UniProtKB/TrEMBL annotation:
Keywords: DNA-binding. The keyword DNA-binding applies. It holds the Pfam family TetR_C_8. Residues 35-54 bind DNA. SUPFAM superfamilies: Homeodomain-like (SSF46689). PROSITE patterns: HTH_TETR_2 (PS50977). This is TetR family transcriptional regulator.
């Protein structure tokens, strides 16, 4: 039993080393130019060790992305399951809070994937996660009336504007805290664009 746990830890540690090495290379080379040899050299392992864990660099990237999205989806689902009312003006919506906290915790990964060397359909998948989360959120709300605009347009607005703010936040080196960012997006959502600008509506 103990030997098995030791092997599992070694496997996990090796996979982490390979993933971290890959992330260090991505800012320097575009994905198409990166070879398994490059990754193995950066990780200080031989190619056979790499192939013991991943089929190729595409498999490595897919595993890294899937792991992050599975974690994010789990965090969002846990927080979403306890929500039923509209957030207050002085507290960030828990969904926004989870998003920004998660991205800060995995800063290097998201900085590389979103800004430096976007590969595959990462932005599309992140958009889908946010969109589905807010669809569930809307479904749980105690609403007195129907959605005021077409649901697909509303969800697109929420997801694309949120991703845009995430991009800008990372590009600005995360000067503001996750709490601050989540609170501002919550207030914009509560007020609406024109009220947020100070207009009387």
């Amino acid at each position: 039993m103990n030997d098995s746990r030791g092997v599992d830890r070694r496997i996990l540690r090796t996979r982490i080393i390979i993933s971290e090495a890959f992330l260090k290379i991505l800012p320097k080379k575009c994905f198409a130019e990166i070879s398994v040899v490059n990754i193995a050299q950066q990780a200080n392992i031989n190619r056979s060790t790499f192939y013991a864990h991943f089929l190729d660099k595409e498999d490595l990237l897919e595993n890294m992305v899937n792991e992050k999205f599975q974690l994010l989806e789990q965090l969002l689902a846990e927080r979403n399951s306890h929500l039923g009312s509209v957030p207050s003006f002085n507290e960030p919506d828990p969904i926004f809070a989870v998003l920004f906290e998660h991205i800060l915790e995995h800063d290097e990964f998201y900085r590389v994937m979103l800004l430096i060397n976007p590969a595959g359909n990462f932005n599309i998948r992140l958009n889908e996660v946010i969109r589905e989360t807010f669809f569930d959120r809307i479904s749980q709300l105690d609403r007195e009336q129907k959605v005021q605009v077409p649901l697909d347009i509303l969800l697109d607005h929420i997801s694309f504007s949120t991703i845009g703010m995430i991009h800008k936040w990372i590009a600005d080196h995360k000067v503001c805290s996750p709490h601050h960012m989540a609170l501002q997006l919550t207030r914009i959502a509560l007020l609406g664009t024109y009220k947020a600008m100070g207009a009387s509506v």
